[in-house]
Structures are given as C-alpha cells and as structure tokens.
Amino acid sequence: MELNKKETLRYLGYKGQHMDLEISNLIDEASEELLHSIHPKSVYKEFDCMVQNETTVLLESLSINSRNLAKNLKGCERAIIFAATIGASADMLIKRYSITNLAKASVVQAAGAALIETYCDTLEETIRNEAILKGLYLRPRFSPGYGDFSLEYQRDFFTILECSKRIGITLTDTCLMIPSKSVTAVIGLSKSKNNCLSEKCTSCSNTACEYRDHYYI
Amino acid sequence: MNFRNILGTRMLFFDGAMGTILQSKGLKPGEIPELWNLTHNDTILEIHKSYLKAGCDIIKANTFGANPFKLKDTTYSCEEVVTAGIMLAKDAVAKTNKDAYVALDIGSLGKLLKPLGDLEFTAAYEAFKEICIAGEKAGADLCLIETVSDTYEIKAAVLAAKENTHLPIIVTMIFDEEGKLLTGANVAAATAMLEGLRVDAIGFNCGLGPVQMQKLLPDLHKVCSLPIVVNPNAGLPVVVDGQTMFNVDPDEFADLMKDIALSGASILGGCCGTTPEHIEKTIQMCKDIQPLQIVDKERSVISSYSQIVELNNKPKIIGERINPTGKSRLKQALREDDLEYILKEALAQQESGAHILDVNVGLPEIDEVSLMEKTIIGIQSIVDLPLQIDTSNIEAMKRAMRIYNGKPLINSVNGKQDSMDAVFPLVAQYGGMVVCLTLDETGIPETVEGRIKIAEKIVKEAAKYKIEKKDLIIDTLAMTVSTGQENSKITLDTLDYIRNQMGIHTVLGVSNISFGLPQREKINTAFFTIALYKGLSAGIINPSIEAMMNAYYSYCALSGNDEQCINYINHFSQSTENKTSVSNLQQDQVSLFDAVVKGLSESAYTAAKEMLNTKAPLDLIDEDLIPALDKVGQGFENKTLFLPQLLMSAEAAKSGFHAIKELLAKKGNVSSSKGTIVIATVKGDIHDIGKNIVKVLLENYGFHVIDLGKDVSPEQIVQTAVENQVKLIGLSALMTTTVANMEITIQQLKTALPDCKVMVGGAVLTQTYADMIGADFYSKDAMGSIRYANELFAV
Fold first, then answer.
1. Taking CB atoms and an 8 Å cut-off, how many pairs form between chains A and B?
2. Do A45 and B29 lie within an 8 Å CB cutoff?
C-alpha cells in the first residue's frame, strides 16, 4: 500500500503553512514506521437488497432504518457489507508516542486515517472489477454513523461478517471499533451508472468541520 | 481413560467445522449458531454424530460463542446454552456408542481487553468463569479455548478454567501468516505464557489453511514442550460471488495433515470449511502415525505480551531504574501518581538496551498493591519488554502476576520457609521465572558452601511445586566490598558454581558491590565484567550508565556472544555519532525561548538547566517558557503553524519543565501550580489523542492536570472533581453515541459541584451541540482550552 501524504496532511489540519525540514522528516518517519507495521485485513459478503420505502432498506433478513442509506441504495438489487482494518499497530504506536512524542502521535493518527481510507479504496476497486463483469456498478460506500444511519447497526454487521473471528475487529459497548483504524460500510450494486459518484465529505452535514475536504464541495 | 494420560501418546482427532455446516443447513447471517442447541437440537446432534462416525476422538460442543456478551440480547442464559450444547454432544457420543471425549468449546468473547480495548481483565475472567462452571457441570471432559488472538484474553480464559474446574485445558490460537497474534505476540511468546500457566496442549486453529499452518509449525515445535494441536481451515478463505468459501478438498486436506502429523503435531482436526469427510480422510491417513516423542525444550524464558527473552549464554540486562530506593524524582512521581514519568523511565531504559525491566514501587506511605497493579498495566500498554515484578509484599506480587500479560520474572523468593511457602504457589498458579536469593532464616552465609546449600534447598523445595530448575534464577547476592575483603569473591565463586556445576541461571544486583565507596561506577564495571565471565545470566543494572553498557557490549563480543561483533559495532558507531551531534548542538546553543518555538526538546532541556543556575524557576516560566508557548499558540490560531508544529513546541516546553521539576525534587519542593483541572475522555469513548494534547498544553501553562484517561464513567469524574474541589473539568468525546455520556457527566457534575465549569471538545461537537448538552465552553482546538483555562483562573 502507498502512503497518501496529501491526505495525511489534511487530517493534520495542514493548510499550506511553511514546513521546515524537521517537521517534514517527522511526518515521513512516522508515516513510514506505521506503513511497515500495519496488517490490513478485510471481509465482505453480498446480499439481496431491497429499498422498501424512503426510510427502510432490507438486506436479506436485516432491516435498516435510515433515510440517507435508502437514498444511497435506491435502485440497487444487491449490496455488499464489508469491514476492513489496518490492524492494531496504529493504536499501539499512537499510545506509545502519546507518552514520548506527541507530534509523532498526531502524525501516526493522521497517517492511519489516510491509510485505512486508501485500503478501502483498493478493496472497493477489487469489488468494482468483479461487479463490472456482471454488469453492476458500485454506489459510494456508506458507513454506519453517516447521516441518520445509526452506529447501532455495527452490531449486526459484526455478527454477520464475524469480524472479530475473521479479521480481529471488535466492538465496544458504544459501537466503536477496535482497532480504531477500521471501517465498515455498505456498498450498493446497481445495474445503472446513476448515483455512483464518490461523495466522501459532501454527504456529511457538518459543514464547519476543520477537516472537510473542499475538493468535494 | 484419563484424557491427560493419553495426550501425546497416540494420535488424537478433533472434529471439523460446525459453523460453516450450520450455514449450509440454513443458519442465517447474523443468527447466533449456539441457539440452535435449543431450537434445532436434532441438526446439531446429527452433525456431532456424523463426526463421530468419521472416527474422531474429541467433539467440540456447539458452545463456541455461548458467552454472556453474545447472548445478552437473547432470552437464554449462558448456562442454558452451554448446558444444552454439552448435553447434545454427550448424547451423540452415547447414541453412536463411541469412546470419545466432549470438549467445552470456548471462543473469544468478541471484545478486546484493555488497554487496547474496553473490556476489563476481571470482566473477561468472570465471563469465562460462568462458561467453564456450566460446562463442567454439564459433563464436559475438557476445555478447548480456541480461535483466540490476544494473549491477555487467553490468560483470562485459562485462569477461569484452571481456577473453577478440574478439566484439562487445550488452547488453540489464530496466528496470521507471519506467525503473529492480533495483539502482536509471536508463537514463542504465546507458548511461554501458556506453558507457565500449565495448560495441557497448545496449537493453531482457524485463520489459516493446512499449508500455512505447516509453515508455522516449526516455530511452535522448536519452543513447545507440550502436545501440539493443529485444526486448520479448509484453506484460506476465498470470496466467490460475495460469499466466503474454503477450497481445499478432503483428499488434499488429509495429505497435508499427514505432513503436519509427521512434523510433530499429535492432535489434529479441522476448523472453518472442513466436513466429516475431511476428518474421516485425515484419520485414515494419520491414525497409525506414532507421534514424535515430546521433549522438554529446557528453555528458560520469560515473556511480554509480544515477545520472549530467553536466558542463555548471552547475558541479559535487567533495567533497575524503576525502583524508588535513592531516587527522589521517582519517589515524587510515585507519590503524585505520575505514571507518565514512570513510563518514560521504562522507554528510556529500553532505548538504552535493557532486555527486561525491574518494577518496584514500594514506598512506605503508599498503597503498594494497587500501585503495582496500575504500574504493570501502564507499562505493558506501551513497552513490549518482559517485566520483573519486584516486591516483598506477597499480595502485591500475586495481584501483579495475575494481571501481567505474559510470563513474568519474579523478584524474589529466598531460602526462608515462609518465603518459599508464599511465593512458589504463585509461580505454580500464574507461571513465571523466579529470582532466588541465597539467604534464609540464619541470614546471608559468609561462605560459598553456605550459599550453595541454600540454593540447593530452594531448588528442592521448588520441585515440590513442579517448578523446574529452568524457571529459577539464583541471586548469589553482591555485598559491598567496603565492609569485607572476601565479599566479592564469595559472591562470584558461588555464582560460578551455580551456573557451571548446578546448571542454573544466575542474577546479581551489580551495584550493591560498591556501596559506601567513591566513584562507584568504576568498581561496578569491573565487578560486572568478572561476574559476566563467571557466568552471570542477567545483571540488574542502570542501562543509562555508559560504562556499564560498554562493559556489557565488550564482554559479549569477547565471549563469542556477538556474531561478527555486530551489536558492538552498531552500538559504538552510533554513540560516536551521537557525541558529535551533541557537541554540534552545544556549539550553536539556542536559548530556551528559541528551543521551544522551534520545537527542539533536547536543546530546551539543556538551555533550561543552564539558565536555572542563575534564574529562579518561576521567572524562567514567566519570562521564557510561557512567552514562547504564547508565540507558538498564536501561530497555530492564525494558521501560520499546524498541529505537529504546535506539538513539537509543546514537547520542547515539557522538557524545559522537566529540568525545573528535577531541580525542585532535589530540593524537596513540590512544584506550585496555577490550579487543578480534571480531564477525561467520557465513558464509552476510546479515542483520546485530542485529550492527551490538551493535557500537555495545560501542563505547559502551569496547571496541575488530573488525567483520568479514556472510557471514564461519570461517577469517577464527579468523584475526582469533588475530592479535589476543582473549578474546571475538560471532557472529550469523538462520536455522537458517546456525546450522550458527555451530557450525563455534565449533569452530574453540575449537581455535585454547582460552581464548576465544564469545557468540551471532540470531532463531532459544535458550539450548538455543546450548548445543548450544557457545557460552559466549547473548544474547537487545543489552544481554545488554554485560553479558557487562563481566563477562568486569572480571576
């Protein structure tokens, strides 16, 4: 996998400030260290998908109540649920550097966030290539916690995908994932190319966010 | 026949998959397979019977996920589901008239333990305890702890099985292709811990297929002195049409399993994707193989949560810095509950080359039992070296051994009957190597013979607890040479005999030799070198003293324990570079102000130390440190600097404060503060980097910060705030789900301490949101909290 320094910098709140060699080296060093310690793993399953009405989606036996997800999946007959992680090393490094070098901790945090996104993009690409053979197109991935898609659905996703057994992600009582650099999402598969552009930051209602990527607005 | 007695004497066969077969029989995604024990008992019974007909010796009851966490939202109790599962398996054995054993199948709880996760070790233990008790009561013949990938969870499960049942315990773990568990342990480390805990067999299951497990097997075989289990998946999972498949067919599987048996595994079976046919063919292929004889590997090892240290001909360094004796700054840190200082000491010693860290927190005025526990957990959350639990308080020793993640070194037992009666049962229970002092009721013998006799007595007594010589390390006691000419010779001659005649490892607290003498380093180094030559296995020293490490690296090179002198070369070519860079720095010495602004930690420390010769600490803070921080903070707010730059400066300022604290500790003064602030990441939330940043900045500005950590309950925050009567509390939360807990915390704080102010921050928060939950201040970044705290405390 490759590091995406631009994304790492965005997560660090970088807005074109002057960067001396020390900082630049620190960012490269911490990112490289993380890159060499990650263990990316993923799991996914495909389901029949039915958008029952404006607020309800049915993925086989799992019924999800979310207006935003229903909008995202409208017109899809199949959908994939996937989970991916870069492993626990990012959390371990952050913990260690929080004691010895907070600046490095912040970089590992940002680089980890960028890396898991890159990994999900790669995974999505694999899924896209498989889907295209069947004449299906991918909707932008949509995760629990986006818009009105409740985090509580993480519990169902975790049981369905056997996340803890297969790829070592576990869930806290409050539905947060550990390792923290992990993602779960639904990807709709539709026969038409409509609504298939990546949304990323645009689907989020927090327009005041420090980290909002203005490219997408 | 007693299961323990046949283990390893002939090939034994587990059954194969349950879950993947249930899926093919209609188990829906997300449905809990163990509930089928009650709803589809015929199906489960049939599956067991088909495996028994295939000829297996052990069937896994359908209890893998029957734990209180997974069953929480069902109408069934853990005991009901476990009991039904065991009964079905026993029923299948009875109906097929086979001579087979039923394993209580215990899987991972599906939650990660602290410090990485949110589950307490004791909560995990209690959950496993419930499962184990129910399983034994229902008639299980053994416990199989399987598909686990975190040594800490494994330890909780093994202790629960060991302390609440009489059943044999088998543990099989998920390693990845590189031979690592999820939380980082390699095969040797996991084995060291499990052998210490005295389980009955160890092995692999799930995650990998037979080909990959075969590759990992030598790693296990090399270190393991127990029967080995291999239960692979039917190959690596492949996704076909969005569904997970396992593609190794029964014939190929059986062929591969034969190789595995010939490489030393004596218990075989299958995991995901395997079927009765896989197992039947494997049994046909392997049943007549005579298992390799199990050889005691005679290894003296201790482990951390990820790696081992083996005592052998290459001596090891035990870092002695975490011991308050004679260290005023550490004493202060212990009294003030300053864990961070201790963690830094731990990391510094690791950097200096220590292999093992001694941990001693005994001070007369503190609660050693809880502090020891807290310190061990704290160090193990960031340092991957094995630890030496150093205490004379048996309760503290016990609690520390219990929660230690790995196989610890214990310091110490001695020849007194009382001591042996207290310590050896703990070693037998929790595992560990133990330092044995050659003294007893009569004191410390002044002869070589006297000390050897005590060592022999200890070895004999240890054997009663089945603690072998390989798990003992004898301290022949360095006594100061200033009070007795013969002292050094007695110690060294005893050491020589014990290491070379008795074949037991040795250890010394090296610097004791020079007590009362000037320039102790000089004589310590000489003594250390002689001791190494006589056969010292591990020296308890201060690894930051260059002369001692010089002696160490030189000895290793000269004694043939440093191939091609590689460690020597690495160490010393590096340290010359260090020296030049330090002297360069000294040439263009920067002021404290500039060092902080530029984010240079070492220069900030040196500059502060230098300036403290002529400037009062308070002036240094007000005239140099704070103005520098203000400048950087302003830059951050104006966006001319970004986060890592702010943090580098914060670290540099911290180094400056470190110099001040050292000076004050030496004078016996406590540093004054602008006021006390309690900060915490709220219950349910585990993302605390933002809170940690705020903490460092607040401390830089002279506030005393009580950091309660992450996932902190409202009650604990309120209690701490009330006890300390604080004016300001800072709370962080990352997710919408945990902001709810933030609101509850604020309500409780306002009830208990109506005048207190609460500032909040975190990714999902906004001013509106903060107002809604009743916060007094919303800080959009770390500098915001500084401004607010400064305003609040200026009044």
1. 169
2. yes
